[in-house]
Description:
The chain is 35% helix and 17% strand. The chain is of the alpha/beta class and 268 residues long. Strand 1, helix 1 and strand 2 form a beta-alpha-beta unit.
Amino acid sequence: MSDVRVRFAPSPTGVLHLGGARTALFNYLFARHNRGKFLLRIEDTDKERSTDESTQAIISAMNWMGMHHDEDIVVQTTRIDAHRAALHKLIDNGHVYRCTCRPEERAAEREAALAAGKTFIHRCDCRDGQCRPDAPFVWRFRMPREGETVFDDLVQGYIVTANAEIEDLVIARQDGSPLYNFVVVIDDAFMGITHVIRGKDHLTNTPKQIQIYRALGLPVPQFAHLPLILGLSKRLRSAGVEHYRDQGYLPEGLINYISRLGWSHGDQ
């Protein structure tokens, strides 16, 4: 048994679409090829849209396709205490600060940048302690302003991002409830994930997450960002796995189809 540990982390806001199933399949096959572990995490922090019905539908679809997870499912909302503990650690070591900037101020900055043909990067005065006392706030992560964040993606190759191009991202609301780019780091570290295999749409999140790993003193996993297949995403409302199951398709046929999208071994 190797030390490879990968995960599929769907949000239970709908059925398992083919794009998500393809990402899960690449994780599953990578784990099996390396005799590692394939894990499942339910990312249900979107309380308004997440449902138990969607969670069960996703698990049912994965089981039908034969992608069985190796350990207990991790449900993100059950780990809120761990997320808040990590947030307080970042606050204590100065990597996080309160931000009281109003949304309308950010909108005006964005419009001005677009009008000038520039990339919008919010530069928050709260970073230097100039926030409004007693005003509503969020917690922002203090990104380094100098240097570069570099990683060698297993699919995309060598990725270099100037830190000056990354704004200080919001990682938690005023009540301490965390946001995606923060909790994904905490939970991947908790699960011992060695390789993060996901869609290319997450590529711009990776430099931000790497800096959070470093700030918390956590090991940084290897990343592999898969090319996206047009028309298979949840956002485009493509048909879910259960649709094809109900239409009489065999799981082997569906797996063959999504595994060969964008890749094949010769003519096999």
